[in-house]
């Protein structure tokens, strides 16, 4: 038996932040990316709160790839004020931090269960609707995707005004994260008709609006569409989970701080080749693994219908590489970080173990062996 549930109430479109005037709380803990504080972006959130007569306390000790220490700091702040509502404002890092803060604060203080409202300021992770929170252990160079239903935010607010300040490079990285979520969820061993519908729509929107968003960050229509696509892809993988792409990307983030979406983008062509068994010089076959038909569906949604399965999957891979190139997203690790091949390869064995153990890898359509993962890590340098 399968089930599909959307636990988060989603407010979206122009003026969505006005929802904050009407939340049923008098006091909130704001957990915000420091950029939103220094840039003044947070005023778009605090203005409707103030208009609604709601007071707030701010916790903004958030960093990308959030380490456990920042979660502990937030738990202390949360238990000091015990606000009935937490509002997370920022990219995936801020929202993931807030989800973990609520989880641990609730466990430590019996009877305390604040509401969580997630307000993304990047169009990428979909964390505003998922049960995942990715926390980093810097001492071990590991990223841990924690997953539990009680981390899913109660409400999400998608307002494109908050993403207009996102610079082109972050638009590109986070947009590639959206595409990776949708494609991985679509071929996951847990894919289903509901997750598939969300993934297809997310990919359709990316095909039309990602480059437009990248080229002009004031393009409200494109920004709104990509903000919604990120959330749709989040709903898809919250149901179907992800795959080896994320399992391997987490290790590139933990070891080299390659931004999450960029790490996914570098891996994606190689993972599609690996899962489909279709390489640059493959001939057509009589039998393909089931994920090939699904990759072909995605290709068709992007307008890439081609002669047969082999050429259509190649078309999808070329399109993804073109998209990355068009948006100046590096195609290899050596383009993304200054590191020698020796330094990089000295980490591969540990990264491969971590990728095999990563919770996302379990739903990959092809069961990877450690040697396969090592081979892919070597190939992407
Ligand atoms: N929980 C999930 O389901 C899930 C899914 C995928 C990824 N993740 C995790 O999320 C994190 C990545 O999140 P992300 O890609 O949103 O990036 P991020 O939150 O790390 O932010 C990246 C950078 O963008 C800046 N930024 C954020 N909003 C901005 C804005 N409006 N204008 C200008 N700059 C802005 C931030 O200050 C930061 O410097 C990773 O840790 C990743 O592992 C979580
Ligand atoms: Fe992701």
| Tally of alpha and pi helices | 14
Largest sheet: 6 strands, parallel
Order of helices and strands: EEHHEHEHEEEEHHHHHHHHHH
Termini separation: 42 Å
CATH architecture of the largest domain: Up-down Bundle
Description:
By secondary structure, the chain is an alpha/beta fold. It folds into two domains: 9-165, 3-Layer(aba) Sandwich (Rossmann fold); 170-379, Up-down Bundle (Dehydroquinate synthase-like, alpha domain), CATH 1.20.1090. Helix content is 52%, strand content 11%. It is built from 14 helices and eight strands. The strands form two sheets. Strands 1-8-5-4-2-3 form a six-stranded parallel sheet, with helices on both faces. Strands 6-7 form a two-stranded antiparallel sheet. Helix 4 (92-108) links the parallel strand 4 and strand 5. Helix 3 (68-81) packs across helix 4 (92-108), helix 10 (290-301) packs across helix 11 and helix 13 packs antiparallel against helix 14. The chain is globular, with a radius of gyration of 20 Å. The chain starts with 8 loop residues before the first strand and ends with a helix. It binds nicotinamide-adenine-dinucleotide and fe (ii) ion. The site of fe (ii) ion has 6 residues, from helix 5 and helix 9.
């Amino acid at each position: 038996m399968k089930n599909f549930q959307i636990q988060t109430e989603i407010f979206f479109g122009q003026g969505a932040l006005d929802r904050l005037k009407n939340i049923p709380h008098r006091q909130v803990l704001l957990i915000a990316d420091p950029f939103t504080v220094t840039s003044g972006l947070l005023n778009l959130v605090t203005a409707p709160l103030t208009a609604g007569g709601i007071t707030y306390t701010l916790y903004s000790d958030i960093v990308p790839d959030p380490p456990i220490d920042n979660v502990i700091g937030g738990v202390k702040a949360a238990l000091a004020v015990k606000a009935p509502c937490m509002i997370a404002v920022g990219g995936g890092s801020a929202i993931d931090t807030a989800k973990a803060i609520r989880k641990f604060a609730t466990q430590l203080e019996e009877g305390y269960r604040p509401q969580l409202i997630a307000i993304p300021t990047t169009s990428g992770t979909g964390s505003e609707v998922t049960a995942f929170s990715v926390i980093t252990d810097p001492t071990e160079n590991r990223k841990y995707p924690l997953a539990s239903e009680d981390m899913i935010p109660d409400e999400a607010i998608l307002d494109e005004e908050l993403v207009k300040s996102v610079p082109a490079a972050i638009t590109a990285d986070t947009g590639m994260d959206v595409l990776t979520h949708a494609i991985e969820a679509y071929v996951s061993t847990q894919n289903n008709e509901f997750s598939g519908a969300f993934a297809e729509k997310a990919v359709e929107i990316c095909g039309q609006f990602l480059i437009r968003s990248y080229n002009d960050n004031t393009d409200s229509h494109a920004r709104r569409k990509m903000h919604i696509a990120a959330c749709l892809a989040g709903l898809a993988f919250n149901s179907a989970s992800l795959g080896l792409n994320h399992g391997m990307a987490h290790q590139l983030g933990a070891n080299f701080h390659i931004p999450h979406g960029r790490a996914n983008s570098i891996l994606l062509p190689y993972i599609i080749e690996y899962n489909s068994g279709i390489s640059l010089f493959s001939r057509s076959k009589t039998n393909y693994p089931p994920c090939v038909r699904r990759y072909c569906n995605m290709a068709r949604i992007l307008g890439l219908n081609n002669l047969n399965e082999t050429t259509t999957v190649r078309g999808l891979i070329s399109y993804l590489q073109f998209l990355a190139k068009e948006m100046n997203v590096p195609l290899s690790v050596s383009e993304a970080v200054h590191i020698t091949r020796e330094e990089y390869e000295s980490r591969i064995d540990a990264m491969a173990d971590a990728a095999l153990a990563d919770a996302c890898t379990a739903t990959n359509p092809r069961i990877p062996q450690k040697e396969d993962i090592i081979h892919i890590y070597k190939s992407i340098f």
